């Protein structure tokens, strides 16, 4: 199997980063590199990453020269990635041990430029809550415009199929990337298996629904350049799905 490059931004996640890295080290698929771009943390986050990297050379610390947000940090990791596959994981989330192995087999079977999986939510104390967040079998570009199903920690990109991968420096830069890949005519495929843990924290960038809504509207109008009526139509569907997901969380 080709190398998987795991793309991770980090910023002041001292309480969580070691457990997140360990969830990668526990993968049943071992041919990976973990590229962690630290966005000028003021706690021990970079020191913890460096300590683990000294013992496991697959874990690589990238120090950002200035604090620029998750999009630029992800791009710094992508710029150094050697793998055919890019997997995305935030620095406070977790993978279950079989995540990479199962998803790689699924992605190769589907010849998927982009794939994603189901997941469950945990809090800061690792208490699991809510139901399994299931995913649709596939998503086209127009379907994704109205959907919230591709969680960052579940995404896997095959660069040989997807073409170039570059982050857009906007809120929901991950959503921008998924749209950019699918806009080329690709279809994203969903593996409806519980393979990841999404941590909900009060300080996380996606924890404020009004800000999230503003980001999505900005993507419709200023990134994707959608007409006003189509933007409103997509936004209505996106908002309803976002509300249902939060309610079911």
Automatic annotation (TrEMBL):
Pfam families: Glycos_transf_2. InterPro entries: Glyco_trans_2-like, Nucleotide-diphossugar_trans. Residues 5-135 form the Glycosyltransferase 2-like domain. CDD domains: Glyco_tranf_GTA_type. It comes from the Bacteria. This is Glycosyltransferase family 2 protein.
């Amino acid at each position: 199997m080709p190398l998987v490059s795991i793309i991770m931004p980090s910023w002041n996640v001292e309480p969580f980063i070691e457990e997140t890295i360990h969830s990668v080290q526990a993968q049943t698929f071992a041919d990976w590199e973990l590229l962690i771009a630290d966005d000028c943390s003021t706690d021990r986050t970079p020191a913890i990453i460096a300590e683990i990297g000294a013992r496991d050379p697959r874990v690589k610390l990238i120090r950002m020269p200035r604090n620029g947000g998750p999009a630029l940090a992800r791009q710094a990791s992508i710029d150094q990635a050697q793998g055919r596959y890019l997997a995305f994981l935030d620095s406070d989330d977790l993978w279950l041990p079989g995540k990479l192995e199962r998803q790689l087999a699924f992605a190769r079977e589907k010849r998927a430029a982009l794939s994603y999986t189901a997941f469950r939510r945990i809090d800061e104390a690792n208490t699991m809550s809510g139901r399994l967040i299931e995913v649709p079998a596939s998503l086209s570009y127009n379907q994704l415009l109205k959907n919230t199903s591709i969680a960052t920690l579940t995404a896997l990109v095959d660069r040989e199929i997807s073409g170039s991968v570059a982050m857009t420096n906007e809120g929901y830069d991950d959503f921008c990337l998924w749209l950019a890949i699918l806009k080329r005519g690709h279809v994203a495929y969903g593996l409806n298996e519980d393979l990841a843990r999404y941590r909900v924290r009060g300080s996380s960038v996606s924890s404020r629904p009004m800000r999230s809504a503003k980001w999505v509207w900005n993507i419709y109008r200023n990134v994707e350049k959608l007409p006003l009526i189509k933007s409103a139509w997509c936004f209505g569907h996106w908002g309803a799905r976002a509300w249902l997901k939060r309610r079911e969380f």
